[in-house]
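Hey team,

Filing this mostly as a record. A colleague (T.K.) asked me to run one chain through the structure pipeline before their review meeting, and I want the input and output archived in the tracker in case anyone asks later how it was produced. No errors, nothing strange. Just documentation.

Input sequence:
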Amino acid sequence: MIDSISTRYIQLAFAIEQHVEGFVDAYFGPPELQQNAAHLAPAAIVDALAALNADLRAGSYPEQRKTYLGAQLRGMITTARRLAGEEIAYRDEVRACFDIEPAHTPEALFEEANATLDAVLPGAGTIAERLAAWRDRYIVDAATARTMIDRIAAEARRRTAELIALPADEAVEFALVQDKPWSGYNWYLGGKRSLVEINTDLPIRAHALLDLVCHEAYPGHHTEHALKETLLYHKRGWGEQAIQLINTPECVISEGIATLAATQIFPDAEHWAAEHIYPLAGISGDPERERQIATAQQSLRALSGNAALMLHEAGAEPDDVVAYIMRYGLRSEREARQSLRFISTPLWRTYTFTYFVGRELLGSWIAAGDRHERFRTLLTEPIAPSMVRGDSPGTASSTI
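Output structure:
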């Protein structure tokens, strides 16, 4: 039985969904709560969310649940305020939606990464040309990619099951799609099942597939969602866990988990791929060079946040943003414009910060303790970014 606070939370999320298609990313609770959600004007949604937040604070929920939901409600209120016509500075919107502090990353970090790439990339030409040539040697057709994905998923699932007990009957289906603003997406269907779509608008590269499968499936998004549905919604009866929302703090945790997923179960990623995946396409791996290049490219993850600040805060022209991504990210114009498309899409305009900030925040927290135990905690408990930082009332970063 879903209680009053969770019921109102779910129905107000669907009230926002009526104005912002895609705000509700997944729902697997009682269908009548969705069907009976009222059609409210944005200003009325703001008021209803504020009233719900007051009742939450005065209620008897455990502190962890209360803190998590309070952060979620702040994100929802921010979206509703914008819908009501309120002007909110871009950086303030990111801060309120995601419970994080958005920041411009100094370009010196990107230049340092590019210098490392210059030293390790083979061949002749500019860094961008050599990086493109190196990446292109891993391009595979869709049929081969599908075979690789299936093999990676099977191994990733096996290793994830050694890390944490997976729910019975969980399953993931993979599909190749086109014309999307993202490279991959997990559509969580409920019932411990996911559909993972992989965008083929850009070339499919074998060396990126292991991270992508881990990110979207095992032990990333699918694993988190299936465990939380089982443990939090069905076993504890916490109704708010039956719905997943875009542009709320839960996204920072979810993307942080997903961007770290491969590192948790594949410490031998480059060697395993060279032995088990690349031969499917007749590709010869270079594990040590791949590791060096991947490490350097991790520093470039913050580039998209800088590009979003340029576009939405500084008012830069789109072509200038594309040029910035191409310069520091060493991307082709086509790839840079795909990134621009993502940060320009209304639903996703703030979302890019979840990846870099989520990885940095959760990575630091995991490294400060038993990394597997802490990763299991992230997969199974309701957590807001401020809880990881340890600056929420009643929480401590070492005892979430």
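Quick notes for T.K.: The first strand starts at residue 24 and ends at 27. The longest helix spans residues 142-163.
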